[in-house]
Amino acid sequence: MLSKTEIRILDLLPSLGSNNSDVPIQCQTRVIPFPTNIGFETISYVWGTAQDFVYISVDGVDVPITTNLAAVLKRIRLSSDIRTIWVDQLCINQQDEQEKANQVSLMGRIYSMTSQCLIWLGEIGHDISLSDAQSGLDFIYFISEGKQKQEGASELSVEALHGPMQALDSIGLKNNPWWTRMWTLQEAILPPKACVLWGQLSIQWEILVSAASRWISLPYDPIINTYDDTLFNIFTQVIGFVFAKENRQGPLDTAFRWSFRKASNPLDKVYGLIGLFPAGTLPRVRTCDYGLSRATLYAMFTADLIEYHQSLHPIALRCLRNLPESTPEIPRWALDMGVSHPQFAMTLDGNDYAWYLMNTYDCYNACGATTIDWSRFRYDQTLNTLELTGCMLDSIIVAGPRPCSDEPGTCNVSRAGVARIIQDWYQIAEEFYQSQLRNELIDDKNLWPESFWKGLLGNIKLDPELFPEGPATSEDIALAKEFVQTGSRNDTYYSIFANLAHRQMVITKMGLLGFGPHHAEVGDQVWILPGGKMPFVLRPSEGQSLSNNELLFIGSSYIDGIMEGEAMEFVNPATDIVLR
Q1: How far is CA 461 from the centre of its chain?
Q2: How many other C-beta atoms can be found within 10 angstroms of the C-beta atom of residue 295?
Q3: Is residue 126's pLDDT more than 90?
Q4: In angstroms, how far is the first alpha carbon of the chain from the final one?
Q5: Strand 412-413 relative to strand 347-348: parallel, antiparallel, unpaired?
Q6: Spatial CB neighbours of 286, under 8 Å, sequence gap ≥ 6
Q7: Is the pLDDT of residue 311 over 90?
Q8: In whole angstroms, what is the distance from residue 575 CA to residue 525 CA?
Q9: What is the Cα gyration radius of the chain?
Q10: Which of 92, 81, 261, 84 is nearest to 188 (CA)?
Q11: Would you tell me the crossing angle of helices 448-456 and 493-500 to the nearest 10 degrees?
Q12: Are 506 and 514 spatial neighbours (Cβ–Cβ below 8 Å)?
């Protein structure tokens, strides 16, 4: 078994023949100390299915490998020299869980120290000609050089680009699985140099980066614009890699941004990320223990994120449950890395607004000057609970109804459906406050409409990319009312829809009006957690609870009138609570 100070490298023996594809693959392994001065290349590829395999000779023994790995080994094998590589399928004993844990924890350093990573996108499809594939790569070179049409592309036309763009489409996000695998993220980001291989063709990664950077600022071109989707599905992914490589993203942003990627082992949805950050960044999960359950690992990861960012933002993100791929038994406060398709939870007018809670958390300051009490903060791995402090503010007495699809067979709510939902909520609120005229707990029964419209927008104005432009204005509120009356898109469209994609109307016993998680219920409680920039909806435990302070986490909320710390003046002192 390899230790944490050793790696196994593979010497790919030369073909010694004129027809490389006909010569059986032969390799020899070496165990060397790590770090090492021995030069080696790495391979980034998609494994393929375990049922689709061939045998090769490794140290004189026939060893099964996936056909995709066999294909790339034949492509990179030299005719007369040994090529030294590191590839996970052959350099890690996949049957030894301890060796696997040791080696996976080293993979970030392995890919950082490689001389070059060979990114294998597979063979060229049978329905694609070699000339079209080459022309597609030539077009990427063309963009990377920043040329205009008149500088060498006079023959450029929609018809001339049809074949090359079909070829590029086959290796883009929608059609090539390499872009959707969790492990390929660090395999492309960490190496000092990379080369993309596509059948017998190749292109340097730096050319893709250059082309993607120039593509963003290309002037409108009706010919190129015809194939914008094809270029989008390649270049936006490359730009995402560039952002990560330049350390523009912390662990939380990285985890959220790339959680759509898949892994054969669900634990690798976390382990595939840790190599992107310095040692010690995520202490609980860095051991890469493959004996953990998914629920426990994702909870440990969330606790690590909270401590690293010194923030409760990780638990303020929507908790996706009741989806086909939701992680069984995961605590509700944990970031469910197992869910790859958040858009399937609910869409409004075709958009999932997944980044709304990620981009807007720091717009608020419900906790005022308080901070997380780290002396009381604790993750219990045995119970999968989070211990911290909190202040109970009020109970919810009106909730919903939750937005639901008005397009049969889908999870989508149309624009007209959204307008109807808002009208229903307004009527419910109006009836509630009219019935509370003698309720002394509610200070002013006539201010609720302002809270309703501000809450509907989350009291912020969003741009089309869901980034806040500033607080909502009276003009924005007027536009929100206009949308409800007409159903027509206007400048408040993104703010309204993004909020409703995650929230429903709630009213508390004291008459506070806001918008809480879709699954909030009457009887749930609004809490202020020290250090938490948004109020949180928690539910008292029922049945067998560990203590009176055990609460079920429901989610973050917008409650008008307390988003800037106002509640800290009259809320009860913080007490120890346990979230599950």
Answers
A1: 24
A2: 17
A3: yes
A4: 38
A5: parallel
A6: 105, 274, 279, 280
A7: yes
A8: 15
A9: 27
A10: 261
A11: 90
A12: yes
User: What is the number of alpha carbons within 13 Å of residue 161 lying toward its C-beta?
Assistant: 24
Bridge partners, residue 551, by sequence: 540, 579
> Are residues 259 and 269 in contact, defined by beta-carbon separation less than 8 angstroms?
yes
Spatial contact of 268 and 186, defined as CB atoms under 8 Å apart = no
Q: What is the DSSP string of 444-455?
A: -TTSHHHHHHHH
Q: Rounded CA gap, 375 and 388, in Å?
A: 9
Token output for 221: 């071109």
CA 125 remoteness from chain centre: 29
Q: How many CB atoms lie within 10 A of CB 192?
A: 11
- CA–CA separation, 239 and 358 (whole Å): 19
**Reduced to 3 states, what is the DSSP secondary structure of residue 518?**
coil
Q: Provide the 3-class DSSP secondary structure of residue 493.
A: helix
Backbone angles phi and psi of 494, in degrees to 5: -65, -40
Structure tokens at 439: 């309720």
What pLDDT band is residue 14 in, cutting at 50, 70 and 90?
Answer: very high
- Cβ neighbours of 206 (radius 10 Å): 12
How far, in Å, CA of 24 to CA of 482, rounded?
71
Per-residue pLDDT tens digits for 321-360 = 556 678 889 999 999 998 776 445 688 998 889 899 999 9
Q: Which has the closest alpha carbon to 266: 312, 329, 309?
A: 329
Q: How many CB atoms lie within 10 A of CB 342?
A: 20
User: Distance between CA atoms of 310 and 371, rounded to whole angstroms?
Assistant: 9
pLDDT at 74 over 50: yes
Alpha helix segments (H runs only) across 435-575: 448-456, 474-486, 493-500
**C-beta of residue 93 within 8 angstroms of C-beta of residue 101:** no
Helix (H, G, I), strand (E, B) or coil at 398: strand
Alpha-carbon gap, residue 17 to 3, rounded angstroms: 37
Q: Is it the case that residue 530 has pLDDT exceeding 70? A: yes
DSSP letter (8 states) at residue 365: -
Q: Where are the domains of the chain?
A: 6-114, 130-245, 251-339, 385-579
- Confidence band, pLDDT 50/70/90 cuts, at residue 439: low
- pTM, two decimal places: 0.91
Give the integer Cα–Cα distance in Å for 331 and 297: 11
561: tokens are: 């009138």
- The overall average pLDDT reported for the chain is 91
Half-sphere exposure of 37 (CA within 13 A, CB side): 0
Q: With contact defined as beta carbons under 8 Å apart, do 252 and 305 qualify?
A: yes
Q: Alpha-carbon distance 379 to 365, whole Å?
A: 24
Tokens encoding 446: 């006539």
Tell me phi and psi for residue 82, to 5 degrees: -75, 140
Burial class (CB in 10 A: 0-12, 13-18, 19+), 57: middle
Please enumerate in sequence order all residues whose Cβ is within 8 A of that of 258, keeping only pairs 6 or more positions apart, or say none.
182, 185, 240, 273
Asked whether 201 and 133 are in contact (CB, 8 A), the reply is yes
pLDDT in tens, 200-234: 999 999 999 999 999 988 887 788 888 889 999 99
